[in-house]
């Protein structure tokens, strides 16, 4: 069944190649254009049944603003996004903007056609497995890598941070006390608190842990400021 459509993509060559392939399969392709400030105006003025909108950055803020405008001014136009393997945010952003479907860039032409037809009929056009993967990731997000250095640094007071830097520089209790203008007993207490908070048993271990986790670099930047 022939669909009257437009193809809009970040890369003009890809847009024209897809448009040509769809023309050969009997579809009426009105235009193929690279996204620009006037992309939404072009789609609105030509009023296709379906717009295939390609993007390389589906999670980038504002990337689906043209979809919002198209759906606001011409709600009868179905927009199907062509994009990379998406993260849940990308898919959610596309549908929140008013898109009727999401198709991966590496989908076969038959898959693109099916999405076009479903979108024109008012149905959501997204592969079930793609939707399942996205929901699975939303429900079980990958854990963010633990920034151990930042976490450990937050446990220390500014005074203890300075003590850690001096310990790492090889200063003994006497030098720490003199450099900070405090009594040796107070310096010794600060050192013991730093060791306890970092969970280590010696000054050498504290210095090694700070260097390994990047805590020493962070502490040094703050101390040197």
Q: Could you give a short description of this structure?
A:
The protein has helices spanning 12-24, 39-46, 65-73, 88-97, 109-120, 128-139, 148-154, 158-168, 173-180, 184-198, 203-213, 215-224, and strands at residues 4-8, 28-33, 50-54, 78-83, 101-104, 125-126. It is α/β, with parallel strands linked by helices.
Q: Report the average pLDDT across residues.
A: 83
Number of strands: 6
**Helix-strand pattern, N to C?**
EHEHEHEHEHEHHHHHHH
- Indicate the proportion of strand residues: 5-15%
Question: If you had to describe this structure to a student in words, what would you say it looks like?
Answer:
With 225 residues, this protein is α/β, with parallel strands linked by helices. It contains 12 helices and 6 strands. The longest helix has 15 residues, at 184-198. The protein is rod-shaped. The model has no long low-confidence stretch (mean pLDDT 83). Helix 7 crosses helix 12 (215-224). A 6-stranded parallel β-sheet has the order 2-1-3-4-5-6, with helices on both faces. It has helices spanning 12-24, 39-46, 65-73, 88-97, 109-120, 128-139, 148-154, 158-168, 173-180, 184-198, 203-213, 215-224; strands spanning 4-8, 28-33, 50-54, 78-83, 101-104, 125-126.
